[in-house]
Structure formats: C-alpha cells, structure tokens
Records
---
Amino acid sequence: MKYRRLGTTGVKVSEISLGSWLTYGGYVENENAIKTIHKAYDLGINFFDTANVYRRGEAEKVVGIALREFPRESYVLATKVFWPMGEGVNDRGLSRKHVIEQANASLKRLGLDYVDLYYAHRFDPETPMEETLRAFDDLINQGKTLYVGVSEWTAAQIAEAIHIADKKLLDRIVVNQPVYNMFNRYIEKEVMPISEAHGVGQVVFSPLAQGVLTGKYKKGVAAPSGSRLADPDSKAFVERYLSEDNFDRVDKLQEVANDLNVSLAQLALAWVLRTDNVSSALIGASRPEQVEENVKAIDVELTEDVLNRIEDILTLK
C-alpha cells in the first residue's frame, strides 16, 4: 500500500480507502462486510469511512465491530453528520445541537472514544457557518474527533470556512469529500484550486462511477444480479452515468486498460490518484476479492501519452 498526507496534516492515509455507503449495515450481510473490512486492513488500507445516516446507524455498528480487532492507533476512521436521523425538527442539519448529539451517538454505535475525522456531510444553509465550526472545534478540544472536514461543499463555502476559522482561531477543515471520477470532474474547475491554496485535501467518493467504470454494465444487457443497478435502493445512483456517450467511452477506456494489462477499474482509480490534491480514493466493496483487485491500482503508472489518450476519450462528443 502507498500512503498520502490527509490534506496538509501530518496524518497519513492509504491511497485507497474503504467506505460503507450502500453496502454495510443491510445491503451486504454483516459477516461478509466484516470479512471485507478485514481483507482491506490486511492489504494495508488504514482509512475507513462511514456515516451516521448509512442505514440509520447500522453501518457504523458493523464498521465498529469489524475494526475492534485492530489496535486503535493503526487505522484512521471517519464518520459524518448532516442528514436526518429522526423525524424531529432538530434531527438534521449542522446546528450545534445536532452536531454534538450525533457525534456522541456515532461514538456509541462505533464503540469508540473518538473518531479521527468528522465530516459535515453537506452544507447547511440554515445554520451559521461559525456555529458549525465552533461545534466542530469543541469536539476537537474534547478529544472526540482529531480532524474535521466537509463533503460536497463548493469552493466558495470552503474558502469561507477557512476564513472564519482563521479569524476566530478555530481548527480548520482539512479535507473535502466530493464525488470525482472520469465522468464527473466538476471539482477540477474551482474546488481543487481553492483547496490546494488552503491545504485542503480531497477524499473522493464514487471513483468508479457507481460501478460503470468497471465495465460490468453493458448497453442493452440486463444488470448483473446483485449489482447496484439491480437494487432498487441504489439504482438511481448508477443510472445517472448510463448515457450512450459513456457506454462508448467505457469501450474505448477498456482498450486503454487492455493495452496496459490492467482492469478498467484499476485504470479509473489510477486516473483519480494522478493528482496530488487527492489524498485518497474511496471505494465500496461487498466482497473481499473486490478490494484485492482495486488496491492494485496504486501500482498503475499513467504516462503523459496515456493520460492524453484518456483525455481524448473523455472529451469525445
């Protein structure tokens, strides 16, 4: 495994990290989920990601049980807060009340005294940013989280968060978690530049475009049994990538992968990791062998000629 700094902090995380969205706590039976997490750890993955909202806390419970076998200092664990966790008017968002209550609830489900990284799962327009950042700062001072970050915030929101933290002497956010893959590159225009300027790293999710960049989905062919496209709960996340143009691009990208003697998934992950601002690429896996294949991406070297060939494919109209 290879490791990178989380933003500009001193902590190092594996280039490939393992998440639990749409997988653990229900979709994948717990025994297999635990085996997959253990395989990831054995392969050198030290960065694990979950959230309170994933299966309403069930994913956190599974991740906590799986990681309990390992020394606490040997892994980096992230969870999140924002989405509704109940029907009450204050059971959502980034108010001090919700942030503090959910941090405590997450720690209880995980069976831990602290998490390494706590994310604002989305931006909350109804809560003053200073209120959220002060709540995060208090959690750091209490030792309940070591670092804080955001997910899917705009460049302007990230810049404002840095400005407020510096002005009020609060702990800064150190990482952003956006979607980023060959078919969704929106962060390149503004988010990456502003993040690089302020030492904020990217921990990207959906680097394989919900499985489309594995080549498993074929034009005019029924979705494989057990795949996300075949699951009503996750189908919509996959369908957004299933355009005629993307099917054509996948075919051409597969040719590039074949020429390099790697899988399409390994090519797509190596492409995401080509930029230093990406601290880690977050994968999902329902079976141990999927992790085993994906981690091989860290050894895939993409020359300038290959990158140019990929760029021509991705910009093809």
---
Amino acid sequence: MKTAVILPCYNEGSAIYDVVAAFRLNLPNADVYVFDNNSDDNTAEEAKRAGAVVKQVKQRGKGNVVRRMFADIDADVYLMADGDGTYDASYASELVSKLVDGDNDMVVGIRQPKQTELAYRRGHVLGNRVLTGIVRFIFGTGFTDMLSGYRAFSRRFVKTFPAFSSGFEIETELTIHALRLKLPCDEVKTPYFERGEGSSSKLSTYKDGFRILFFILFLFKEHKPLPFFGLVSASLAVLSVIFALPVIVQFIETGLVPRIPTVLLSTGIMITAILLFITGLILDSVSRGRGEFLQLQYLQYRPVVGDRTKS
C-alpha cells in the first residue's frame, strides 16, 4: 500500500522544514510531496532540504494546487495537510488507519484549538459553523469541521474528484463531493496549533467566506437543480400572485381591469416561474446522468482494503 503525504504551500519557508520532517517521522514509509504555489520565499528550498519531493504550481490558489496534486500523484492513500505547522503530524497514522481499517474514502481531521483564539480565530469558527450548517441543510448529513485542511483520501476518491474550485473553496467541494456520492467517511479529532513565527494566514475571513458561500450555492445549482430552480420558481410564483391578487379582487367587484401594467408584470413573473421550474426538471435529468457517470468511474477503482490485502 503506497501512501503519499501531499502538502500545498505558499510562502511557508519558516515552517515547511519542520512540517515535512514531522510527517516523515510519523509516516516513515510514505512519500512526502510539497506543491509550492509560486512562493516568493524559500519554501521550495526548505522542503527539499527536509527530504520532500517539490513540485511547482504557477497558478495561484489552493484549489488549483489540490487539482494538480490529485492529478500528478499516484498512490493508494493520500494524506493532505497544510504546510504551516498548524496540524499535528502525530495524528497522521490515526487518520490513515481510520481510512483503511474503516473502509472509508475520506477521513477529516476535526480541529481542536490548543491556543484558543490565537490558533482558531472567532470569525473563522463562526464562519465554519454557518457554512457547515448550510451544507448540512442543503446536502444532508455533513461534517463537524467542513473547512479542515487535514484529510486522508482513498485513491478512488482522489481520481474521481472533479475539482472546479480555484481557492479556499476546495475543502467545501471535497465535502460536497463525498456527500453527493454518499461515500463512506469518518472524522478524527486532531489538535490545531497557532502558526509559528514568520508564517501568516492567507485566508481572508470575509472575502473568502463569501466566496465559499457563493460556491456552495453554485454547487447547489449544479448538483440539485430541481430544488434550486424550484425554490426560485416558487418564490416568483408567490410574488406574481401578490401582484395579481388586488387586480383579481377589483375585477370581481367592478368587472374592470384598469391596472394593465400590473397584470402584465404579474403574468411575466408567472411565466418566468414556470420556465424556471421546467429548466430545473431538465437540468435535474442532466445532473443525475453526471452523478451516475461519476459513480461508475468511482467503481472502477478498488478499495484501499482490497489493495492492502492483496499486497
């Protein structure tokens, strides 16, 4: 069973050496890869000095890096973490064991802050809870820490993951992919530490938070078009009835329809509502077909347990 530790990095020269060394210590049989996202510092040099295989990704954004990692690296088990030293490498073997022994396709590390607000800012905690709750409401049972970057994956998860996101939305996309295909997943509580000196967060609480929210809505439209367009259609239909009701009442009372613009507006809104509902029906069939294709692609890969037994 081949295990790969994959670390996306951008300007983590002060931390990456210790991160690579820690994962090499805790997973001695794993290959450690650092994907440098066009850093301006000595991230690549420090990663090489620690014994990692370094690859360059010029296109900025964590989603772009993860897409490249999943495409380039061939392994049975993938362990992904950030290169900033905030995740505890001593829990790597537990994540891998939970993946393999539990017949899972993804295991997520639930962050447990060790320096309270210094490690996990309140804005990030609140945003994570809100966004996780929205995903749970839309897609069903979700995860405790949807935005965690500490995860273990099976080969069949990685090789059938159609990454669309380019930035910090990638964790959301990984989560929704697992929920959409109803893949077996689990969670492990892991310590979460404050960044070391010289390392700074690249995540903007509000900017990236709104990007993640809009991306959730995008995936809602893509994966559940009938509920998405049906909700918009129903809202417009109610609005149309609100506009039309006074006109109808006036017509019943007087037999006249003097408010022609209101009638036209109400009619136009109702027609739009009907068209949106039909659009949702059509796209729902397309989405189901894409989901079935992904499921068939997923089934082409053997589970990790099968590979381990064979070896």
---
Amino acid sequence: MLELKNISKTFNPGTVNAKLALNGLDLKLNDGDFVTVIGGNGAGKSTMLNAIAGVWKPDAGQIIIDGTDVTPMPEYKRAAFLGRVFQDPMMGTAANMWLEENLALAQRRGKRRTLRWAITNKEREQYREMLKTLDLGLEDRLTTRVGLLSGGQRQAVTLLMATMNRPKLLLLDEHTAALDPKTAAKVLELTDKLINEEKLTALMITHNMKDAIAHGNRLIMMNAGRIIFDVSGEEKKNLTVDMLLEQFSKASGQEFANDRALLN
C-alpha cells in the first residue's frame, strides 16, 4: 500500500544551516498494516510524513501509494489517497464552521462539486450515526461551531473526518500529544477501532514508547533520517520500553534523546 524508495531530503542545502533530514529512507507497508513510528529528536519522523503527504518533494527517491507513483503530485492531489490527523487539534477542522459542515467537507474531499444542496437530510442522519460511535454526545450538536468543542472532541472529529472516505493511507502525526492522558487514551481507543473496522493502512508517529508498543502490528524506530529498527508480530508484543532503549543504543551507538518519550 505504501513504498518509499531511497528517499532523501536536505533542508537549507549549501548553507551553514544545512540539515540532512532523510537519508536514503526505504519503507514498505502492506495493505492493512498499522505501523507505529518512534525516534529521537530530529530523527526524521514528521519529515517522512510530510514527504508522503506532499508538503515538499524529496531530493531523490520515489513515493508509491497503492501502485501509483505520487512523487510528482502536488499536495492537494494526494488528498484523494490520504487521511491525516495532526498533533494540533485546531489544524484538522474549520473552527468557524458547524460540525455538520466540517463532516460534509471531509465527505466531498477529492470529489467533484455540484450545485445541489450542500447537506441533505439523509447525510445529516448519516453524520449523526457516525458521531454516535464516538460516544461523546456530539450527535446532537451538528450545528455547533467546531471551535467550541474541547481539544479531545475536535481530535476525535478530525479522526472521523480523516477516515470517512476510507483513505489508502492514514497518517497520524503525534495526534494525541496535545491531549491530557485520559483524553489521549480515549482517542487512541477510537483510533484502534476505526483502523480495525475499516481495515485501514496507517502510519502513527508517537513520542510515547508504551503506546508505540501497545498499538499496531508493527513498530519502526528512526534515527538520522533512516530506519534502524523494524519489528512486528509476537516480537513486537513482547517488547518493553527498556528493550527499545537498548535497541536504539545498539543500532545508533548513542543514547536516546527525546525528553517527552523518556518522561512517558
């Protein structure tokens, strides 16, 4: 479903601020894989997601989604393939629009627009049923401005919007990092539910090693723009945080440098 071939990216090349962010990165995800991604500060995790999403073009390499080479495609064209949830709950929704309007926009993403009524009664009923699954009482707040919802509610809605059209690939960029622990656990539970029910292929960056171990069927660790550890199946289930830190030291020859990860 996803193949990254020898992806390289250097920011500010030829200057004193040159930064090699991705260094010949190779990665392949099979259909239905749910992969968690961890790594130290500046390891290239978010840079990799931005490369897949088309925020910028790589200096070298290919990005293939479900057999289609999307490397030359601009970001807006890749929207037909991808769903994405950001770390900031404010980024995935339009704060001044109603909840039902946000859902309608997500439903029509990548599709041709017409001059019919914006939202039909049938669609409203569909939105109510979808929101019921969140168990947050939002099914009766369709005409509430999204900006009035809590951060956890907005992130849950963003997750629902990102998966409405069953994307080829779901990108989760530390999507629980800005939430309190209880709300983060609820959003992660919802994440598991949506991915499993829709049989989605997903890539989730997290700074929480326990979450990286507990969720998904595969875990990859990045350092200096490359993958240094890749584990799945029973071996992943048996991992501990201490084992991950040891693997990082072995593979990189240095200590793990991410205060948020270590504190968690």
---
Amino acid sequence: MPDPISANQVAIESGTSLGKDAWLRLKKNKFAVLGLFFFIFVTLLCFITPLIPGLLADPDSTDLPNRGLPPGEGGFLMGSDSLGRDLFSRIIYGGRVSLGVGFLATLVSLTIGTVYGSVSAYVGGRTDSIMMRIVDILYALPFMIIVIILTTFFGNELWLLFLAIGAVEWLTMSRIVRGQVLSLKKQEFVEAARSLGLSHANIIFRHILPNTVGPVIVYTTLTVPAVMLLESVLSFLGLGVQPPAASWGSLIKEGADHMRTSPWLLAFPSLFFSLSIFSLNAVGDGLRDALDVRASKD
C-alpha cells in the first residue's frame, strides 16, 4: 500500500484574479508602464503643485518690463509671455483645465454611453433599433456648429465645454458597450440570473456590465486624450477657455501667434500636451493587450 502523500509533496498552485493577471501582463509592456507613470507625474504636477504656497507665480500677474524673456532669464523657468506672465505657472494651471475637462467629460461619456448601450442591447428588438437610430442622427450633427450656437447664446463658459463634448463623446462608448452586451446577454450566467427572478436592472448592472469592464477601460483611456485634444482645438479657435484663464490649447494658440519672436511660448505647452496625449495612448494600447483574454494563454 503506497504511503499517503503529504501536503508538502503536493504542489498547490495559487489562483489569480483577472485584474492581477492583467497587471502582470501590463508590467511586461515597458512602454505602457512608462506612459502610465509619466501621465501620473504630469497629473500630480498640475493638481498638487498649485496647492503648495509660494512655489508658483500668479499665472495672471503681468510684468510688462519682463515680457518676452527667454527661458532661464529674470527668474522665469520657461520664459515669460507677451504680458510678462510666467509661462511655467500658466502651463501648470492650464493643465488643470485641460486634464479636468478630459477626466470629467470622459466620466460623463462613460456613464451615459454605458447605460445607454447596455439598455439598448439588453432590451433589443424595436427599442434597440430606435435607440441606435438616435445615435446615428447625433453622429450626423455638425459638432462645431453646435458649439458656436451654444457659445452665441450662453457665452464662453467652461461648463459649455462639458455639455458640448459630452453631447458627442458618449456615442462611440454606447456602441462598444452595446456590442459587448449583445454577446453576453445569451450566456448561461444571465439565464441563471433570470431564473432566480432577479430584476432587469440587477441583471444589467450587477451581472452583465462587470463583464464588459475590459473594453470599457481600454476605450476610456483613449477617450481622455481625445477629449483633451477636442478641448484644445476649441480653445485654439477661441471657442473654449477665455482669457485670462488658460488651457494647453489656448497657450498653444498664444504661442503660435508669437512663434517667430518667442518660439518657447509654443514649444513648452506643445511639449506638455503632446507627451501627455502620447503617454495616454500608450497606456490604452498596453491595456488593450493586457486585458485580452487570448493573451493569457500565451
């Protein structure tokens, strides 16, 4: 009779969660990790630095005798603009606006698009067709004309950026969620939830939507830079943040107006903006690969 196998002789493999497994795969993508840490650094720099007293100059304080100074002169780390304002301080404060618009508008897009797409796919039938035709109509509306009309009636207010951007950015999110829910609502776990008598809202929000988190997270990381780019375009055209407030888009516009005499006014805001967009896109690509179920078999 063979000896009983002791516990020490049995190799027990500990289980791992989907999130932990995805993080382990993401860490292998050095480019995505570098982009993640860079974006976290820029975000903390823009939101934490202004809270430290005496560290930054007043971004709206003019100093005409020291206007147009190049980087490093007159105590200006990145130079001064045409009104003698510290460019570095304006970039930091402008980053709070650009990143804030990116985060909040993406949150609105995520909320509306997720709920709209999931309900449309789950109900199905004629309701799904009508809801998707509404999305098609909204896709066809000229976005710039809507923004011009809103600014004409209500003025150039920051909340209009959220309203205008939120009116279009949720459309693609709703289509992505709808496609995921269509493939999930016939699965066995959904049928089991129905057999237990759970409500439709409970099935959607507690059983179906958690299984769409992978594609939703990936698209969210790609929506933030898209919203930031859209805000910058609007500010560049004079439809976004108005002086004396600044965003990266409005700073790039000011730099473009003085690029021949003061090229640093264009170079530094463009550098902050482009590297932030680039790092977020790298994170999005890395998350797409990390959350791919087929990659876990490699």
